[in-house]
Amino acid sequence: MLKLLRPAVTRALTPLGRALARRGVSPNVVTTVGTLGTVAAALFFYPRGDLFPGTVVITFFVLADLLDGVMARMTGPGSVWGAFLDSTLDRVGDAGIFSGLAIWLTVSGQPVLAGVALFCLVAGALVSYVKARAEGLGMTCDTGLAERPERLVVGLVAAGLAGLGVPYILAAGLWLLAVASAVTVAQRLLHVRRQAVSVPPQTLR
């Protein structure tokens, strides 16, 4: 869904990416700094209940996830290591965000919602794992209701609005994410199964 906005975002980030590339900053550095900033901000602000300022800072660093891609395209074909690093650190960033929310929900006496936040974290990782495993076996798995950009937008918008005092918005956002992530896992499993039944049996590890 949010892939439709990627060209506009790419155009907006291109001048900054070009300036960083001219100064010798590599996409991998941008990826790493963005992830470290995301995790640090999530684990500093969210457990304290500072949801709105935390979301603003996290959003700034999350944009690095788009900026590194823009820079990689400027500097030539992306490297295998760069693609691997980007995908791995995406999971680390997600873990920081939802762990921070889960900690705050736990200390504020909302254990059920804290569990939902942890479910969102696990289900989001499973969404990515199913795709990676399918592609590693030579199949495609670029489908599903809630991919990472959608999950991040819903989670961060809900947290930010909750920080501004909007009632029930965080609970609604987390429950929506939990359901959407579970549906996405099921969609991807079915998509892979339809391809797998036509593949000759082989030994898999």
Automatic annotation (TrEMBL):
MF (Gene Ontology): magnesium ion binding; phosphotransferase activity, for other substituted phosphate groups
Cofactor(s), names only, from the UniProt record: Mg(2+)
Key words of the record: Cell membrane, Lipid biosynthesis, Lipid metabolism, Magnesium, Membrane, Metal-binding, Phospholipid biosynthesis, Phospholipid metabolism, Transferase, Transmembrane, Transmembrane helix
Sites where the protein binds a CDP-1,2-diacyl-sn-glycerol: 28-31, 69, 73, 79
UniProt superkingdom: Bacteria
Reactions listed under catalytic activity: a CDP-1,2-diacyl-sn-glycerol + 1D-myo-inositol 3-phosphate = a 1,2-diacyl-sn-glycero-3-phospho-(1D-myo-inositol-3-phosphate) + CMP + H(+); 1,2-di-(9Z-octadecenoyl)-sn-glycero-3-cytidine-5'-diphosphate + 1D-myo-inositol 3-phosphate = 1,2-di-(9Z-octadecenoyl)-sn-glycero-3-phospho-(1D-myo-inositol-3-phosphate) + CMP + H(+)
Location in or out of the cell: Cell membrane
Textual note on the cofactor: Contains a di-nuclear catalytic Mg(2+) center.
Active-site annotation: 90 (proton acceptor)
Broadest EC class assigned to this enzyme: transferase
GO cellular component labels: plasma membrane
EC number: 2.7.8.-
BP GO terms, sorted: phospholipid biosynthetic process
Known role: Catalyzes the conjugation of the 1'-hydroxyl group of D-myo-inositol-3-phosphate (also named L-myo-inositol-1-phosphate) with a lipid tail of cytidine diphosphate diacylglycerol (CDP-DAG), forming phosphatidylinositol phosphate (PIP) and CMP. PIP is a precursor of phosphatidylinositol (PI) which is an essential lipid required for cell wall formation.
Subunit structure: Homodimer.
Protein family: Belongs to the CDP-alcohol phosphatidyltransferase class-I family.
Name of the protein: Phosphatidylinositol phosphate synthase
Species: Streptosporangium album
